[in-house]
Structures
1.
Amino acid sequence: MSREAGLSWLVSRIRPRAGRTMVAIDGVDGAGKTSFADDLAAELTDSGLTVIRVSFDDFLNPPEVRYAKGRTSPEGFIADTYDYERFIDDVLEPLGSEGCGRYRARSYDFAGETPLSPPWQVAPDAAVVVVDGMFLHRDRLRNARGRKVWDLSVWLQVPPEVSVRRLAERDGSPSEVDDPRIARYVEGQRLYIERYHPAERADLVIDNT
């Protein structure tokens, strides 16, 4: 499905829903997750809905945890990049259909490598929570502590070559998929796709090339 058709499809299915709605926008690095989630949030807001935007990148672990398995470890990239438990405690559980609504949207500042403790916020009962990030179809996030989390989920499909090229343009990282300096990330994302089959688990797959 195209990007434009996907946005329309999502809005048409979210608008009639009652209560809070949890939406996951997943994809590899450079897939365009943040911009797609922002566009979806804007369309939902324009339609009169209350939207809460959360990025999984705001729930990083500190570097000593992120690189505990080594700076080149693909396993470490999947397992240790994010603070899964804090994300579940601060976002997924309180903003779920049975949650209290008291949430915090950030726990870490990557630029300053600093933990954060922002004030708690309270979500309205009918808010749409749009979350972007990698690895959102992992078992521990799809069914956090035994509960189904995502009401709707999206997988943004892009080839590895496109992902790496976009990251090179954005961050100045190497532009070749087989460059050993980015093997941790390329291989980690390949392992994620191989193990968790996000394109099969998602409600919607969008070609975001």
Note: Residues 59 and 107 are 5 Å apart (CA to CA).
2.
Amino acid sequence: MPHPLRPLSTPPTPSMSRRTALLAAGGGLLSLHAPGLLHAKPQARPAEPTVWPQALLVPGGVARLPLGPAATRPVVHTLGAKGEPLPVLVLGDAAGWTAVVGIPLAAAPGPAHATLQSTKGGAARELPYTVAPKKYKEQHLTVSPRTVDLSPEDQARYERERDHQALVMATFTEQPAGQAIDSLRMRVPVPGRRSSSFGLRRVFNGQARNPHSGMDIAAPTGTPILSPLPARVIDTGEYFFNGGTVWLDHGQGLLSMVCHLSAIDVKVGDVLAAGQRLGAVGATGRVTGPHLHWGVMLNRTMVDPALFVPAA
């Protein structure tokens, strides 16, 4: 079942220095003291910094919705699979806020929206966006038959674990007032080749199963796994499909999980810095060999981890 910023708008162009502004304003001074500047080639502007996560309006992607300025953090909700309201991560400060919405893999192409709640008793406001179609590739894998055709005992175990992890995935921790993190750019938890991408339609031993809800990274057993962002550990365990697993809370419904671990070096309640070790790569659970499964969740929706990291 593998299943805490500044506004995310582009920053303004840096203002000119006082000396540059004076030169530009006084044409006589410019021609007298720096005639060569009149014919100098314009300098290339520095590349704009990339915002994290990147927006990708497809199933399994992320929508970034500008909310404008407000004295306090706005409250935004989206709807879950059963129509229930789910809180959305909102980042920024009084100068401008942005809602960061996870789009479900099962989302149908077409119009969609989140809802901005009124803070003064007025009407709520819809925040529309459009989901574009995306067809994910199919992947065929051969694994232990026991992990495809479950015995009654294994089925009962899976259902218990599914219900427990649903509670874990419902975690939503408000960030302390005034706390801001410069970026949601994540570090990849382990070095290695991305052996399986997010969204693949999985076929195990000839039987179709749920789409792949994370990124697989090939790495030898024992390779250290590092926290992608500052986090609090909210769950650890040995699960039927996921094997050794650690769930991390990064704040406001942004969670991540790492699976198939051979060793877990943290416990529930531990607070981790970005880059701090939390365990080691393994081949536990339903696997074809040693690797790390890395999942990222927004508003209880698994989204593509690649949107949080630089292109490989």
Note: Helices lie at 18-25, 27-33, 152-169.
3.
Amino acid sequence: MRSPAWCTARATTLYDIVHLFLTRPYRKLPVVDERGRVIGQVSRRDALVAFESARDNPRLFGDRIESAPEGEGVDSAMRRARGGK
């Protein structure tokens, strides 16, 4: 086994998991909780199938890109993107 071993956290987004699989030679990754304990695994195939089926879900992938005004902070832009004020 090579060191360090790659893993993914429970809260890792599907987009980030797919990106890992597309940029690394892994077929499966362990999923760990906040304490680093293995709680499951995700496969490349399952992640790509989920990603492909999620592409048509506007709640996951919006159909438009919105830019933040110049000078707006990241926290403010994220609140606005989530529908907050």
Note: The mean pLDDT is 79.
